[in-house]
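so im writing up the methods section and need the NAD-dependent epimerase/dehydratase domain-containing protein record in one place, dumping it here so i stop losing it
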Amino acid sequence: MATVAVTGANGFIGSWIVKLLLESGYNVRGAVRDPADVAKVGHLLKLPGAKERLVLAKGNLLQEGSLDSVFDGVDGVFHTASPVPTTTPPDVQKDLLDPAIKGTANVLSSASKSRTVKRVVLTSSTSAITASKNTWSPENTNKVVDESWWSDPEWCESIKSFYALSKTQAEKTAWDFAKQNGLDLVVMNPATVLGPVLPSTLNASTRIILGYLNGSKTEIPNRMYGFVHVKDVAKAHIFAFERPEAEGRYLLVESTMHAKQVAELLRTLYPQCAIPDKYVDDQPLLVGTYSADKIRKLGMEFTPAVEAIKECVESCRERGWLDC
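--- predicted struct ---
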């Protein structure tokens, strides 16, 4: 079976990619910051097939060439590693932009040096698609957001949406590198990713749902969400690696919901929780729809978003992150 490498192997999405790769018989090299940190990588070592076919290796994204040996001899690379802060970091350039942008450039440089890498699958985000002033304007009720859309870096900077800026610039860097170096690159753009959490730490997208349930969110924001199951995101990465016809960007989303709909759904499912019922303002509700038609046409199917939400909540309860 083929050998592949996964950066950010112990992250929320990376862990699921490793899990499904092992289940499919792949030999996996997982790049992590510290392979000896059992608290952060222990869940990977317990996965079925890990003992026989998973090797964890140290990888420093900001150190050029640090992944050369990890990628040597592999057939493909899944690059998932990138900071996903829950608050603005003290040093945006050092803590967020450099790891995302320079880290991506270094990963692709190492992949291009390998004589065996056939394709790189990059984890981007809908944050590289929708972060523009009028994406979800209430005036255009028929708006459909697809892979042709790009976030506006200047607007991201103006509103201090630095995560969106990091994902946008990192993806643009990847496409520029791939074009200049003849690297076969496919990009996944998942929306808000939910479902069972494999690592021991709480990730940013799960925090969104927790905020609606644990009382920390007191008002319903005027914003749109796209939801997709984490297992489907992992499947889509492997799906894109295994199909020669896969190309370009792929938006990964099962359902588009306004925050109002999210609150109503959660209130129905979990009436005992402290779900907000007050809206942040009286402005017209934003509207719009994500389209994942491109990857669906390749045969990809998605789990209903409500199931992703339910499994997310159940996972939080099991780990003691939610007690309602």
